[in-house]
Amino acid sequence: MGKDKTEWNAIESKLKKELTDSRYRHTLGVTYTACALAMRYDVDLKKARMAGLLHDCAKCIPNAQKIEICTKKNIPVKKFELEHPVLLHAKLGAYIARKDYGCQDTEVLDAITWHTTGKPEMTTLEKITFIADYIEPNRDKAPHLAEIRKVAFCDINECMYMILKDTVQYLSENPKSMDETTLSAYDYYRTLTKHID
């Protein structure tokens, strides 16, 4: 247990140096929420905690540098991501979580990779990380947040649908900012939960 605690403290200390104060507060909120959801859905707490802690580890890297690192490290970048490099923090985050924070767990790394866009057929850990990022206690701007927070602990797939629906509606105001992966995730969870929008 002592070794575990030392490792967590080291990760938190490093993150605190790499992130802005507000991003670090958000990260702790996501970690707390991911752990609560993991307890509800019987997912490994350590994995949920690690995914929550490291999900935004690349967020504060300047966009030009994100592209540069991805190019150097042969991390595949879509044309859409080059046009919207803020999205790269997810897949780059998975790389940095492995390289700089020593996370070798592919389930955790996948949860980090998909926490922004979502995708069809996500694992429960991936869903937890995605949802925790959206509903953590510091969030206050998204529509239907109070209802989504309740549903998160009752029906995880319904919660995915609700978040993705709101995200797609928000992004549809500027269709050029819509990632096709988010749209396919929305279609998948809409069908899964039998909604007709």
Give an overview in words.
With 197 residues, the chain is an all-alpha fold. It has a single domain (2-140), classed as Hypothetical protein af1432 (Orthogonal Bundle). Helices cover 67% and strands 0% of the residues. The chain has helices at residues 2-18, 21-41, 45-54, 63-72, 79-83, 88-99, 106-113, 124-135, 145-152, 156-171, 180-192. Helix 2 (21-41) packs across helix 8 (124-135). The longest helix has 21 residues, at 21-41. It is globular. The mean pLDDT is 95.
Strand/helix succession: HHHHHHHHHHH
Give the low-pLDDT segments.
none
Tell me the name of the CATH homologous superfamily. Answer: Hypothetical protein af1432
What is the fold named in CATH at topology level?
Answer: Hypothetical protein af1432
**Tally of alpha and pi helices:** 11
The portion of residues assigned to helices is 55-70%
Straight-line distance between termini: 49 Å
> What structural class is derived from the secondary structure elements?
mainly alpha
CATH architecture: Orthogonal Bundle
Query: Main β-sheet, in a few words?
Result: none
For the record, the count of structural domains works out to 1
What percentage of the residues does DSSP assign to strands (E)? under 5%
Q: What is the tally of beta strands?
A: 0
